[in-house]
Design goal:
With about 400 residues, the chain is α+β, with helices and mostly antiparallel strands. It is built from eleven helices and nine strands.
Length: about 400
């Protein structure tokens, strides 16, 4: 078996079109040849090399499902394949694409004016300009409806004040999608989105230091101090409370469900090769029953996640994808990848903590992926609400 077919027991890749296979292989080759040789240095420095953004854009990884404006407009399965290959490299690499495309660009595409789309989407698709998505706040992670960032009218302008936390790319972004509470007649706590150029006075961002996880990602704080933007900065389609940002988050969660397949597959590829070469007590490691049992269990978990992701793509392309389906796939697939990374670290033994192996880096990254875009418990409550009709978030 080849390095990659060993992870595809149900031969799902045989159903890919020639174009999808070419896209997958092109992305995989770029990750292996361009990104991976420098991954440990980037991890040590704790930042994403932003000079690679235009190369990621050239792969078609930004704004995958957007039609026009120079965006790829590819199918859901193709989008998933790109996310899978990016995260095979590192969760931070896939996070760049998720923040840029699924969150910032989709917010503009779904809710922006034609002028906003024409101004930003073409250069964001190429990676020339980067965006960020300012929703989460220091005191409001799983409860974005409690946000304290305020937007107030002042003549023909809006004035924004507040703080955002855990915002990807905010220190290198050219535009920020900022979600804020506004006071509107008949709607005392409306939540609206604003397209804020990051060079405006009062916008400050800084990297969050001290991360043990997702180190190859530019995770930031944002502080907004009397940031003044014109009326044209408002995303006019965001007059429906939290539904707008949550819709963007579902697009990102879809990409996560696919992306973590790559992290799990990368770990399994590595541990399988290691087990075939490692000698223990005069035998190859892969000849032991306990090791084969662990490999079989991991392949079974991975295959279930692959089947869920491929089905999710069918539903998305058919326009039948709903938030409950995305929630199940996000938390279940992340949990699968965490289990596989932990088991692979165990099979590798002591060398599994070294940076010459990918497993420990993936294991640490997945702790962050399990938290952002909704924790397991939040997604279980989404499913519980669907099953019972009862809202149990509070």
């Amino acid at each position: 078996m080849t390095q990659y077919s060993s992870n595809d027991l149900y031969d799902l890749d045989a159903d890919l079109t020639p174009g999808e296979k070419a896209l997958r292989d092109r992305t995989r080759a770029w990750v292996a040849d361009t990104f991976m040789p420098h991954v440990n240095k980037s991890w040590e420095l704790g930042v994403f090399p932003t000079e690679l953004a235009t190369e990621v854009g050239a792969l078609g990884a930004f704004g995958c499902s957007i039609e026009g404006y120079g965006c790829p407009n590819i199918g859901a399965r193709s989008y998933g394949l790109i996310m899978r290959e990016l995260e095979r490299g590192d969760s931070g690499l896939r996070t760049l694409a998720s923040v840029q495309g699924a969150l910032a660009m989709n917010a503009i595409s779904f809710y922006g004016t034609e002028d906003q789309k024409q101004t930003w989407l073409p250069t964001m698709a190429t990676g020339e300009h980067l965006g960020c998505f300012g929703l989460t706040e220091p005191g409001f992670g799983s409860n974005p409806g409690g946000m304290e960032t305020i937007a107030r009218r002042s003549g023909d302008e809006w004035v924004l004040n507040g703080e955002k936390m855990w915002i990807g790319n905010a220190d290198v972004a050219h535009c920020a999608i900022i979600w804020a509470t506004v006071e509107e007649p008949g709607n005392p706590k409306a939540i609206r989105g604003f397209l804020v150029p990051t060079d405006v006075k009062g916008y400050e961002s800084s990297l969050i230091d001290g991360k043990y996880s997702l180190r190859i990602a530019r995770t930031c704080r944002i502080r907004l101090t009397d940031v003044r933007v014109p009326e044209s900065a408002l995303l006019p389609g965001t007059s429906i409370g939290l539904r707008a940002p949550l819709c963007c988050l579902d697009q990102a969660r879809y990409g996560i469900a696919w992306g973590v397949l790559g992290a799990a597959e990368g770990c399994m590829d590595e541990v399988r090769r290691y087990a075939m070469e490692r000698q223990v007590f005069g035998r190859r490691l892969d000849s032991f029953q306990m090791v084969q049992g662990k490999l079989a269990d991991m392949l079974t978990r991975l295959t279930k996640a692959q089947l869920m992701s491929f089905r999710l793509a069918e539903l998305k392309d058919a326009g039948r994808l709903n938030e409950e389906q995305v929630s199940m796939a996000k938390y279940a697939n992340v949990e699968m990848a965490q289990d596989i990374a932990r088991t692979c670290r165990e099979v590798l033994g002591g060398v599994g903590i070294l940076d010459e192996y990918v497993v420990m880096r993936h294991l640490l990254n997945l702790e962050s992926v399990a938290t952002y875009e909704g924790t397991k418990d939040i997604h279980r409550l989404v499913l519980g609400r669907w099953l019972t009709g009862v809202q149990a978030f509070r």
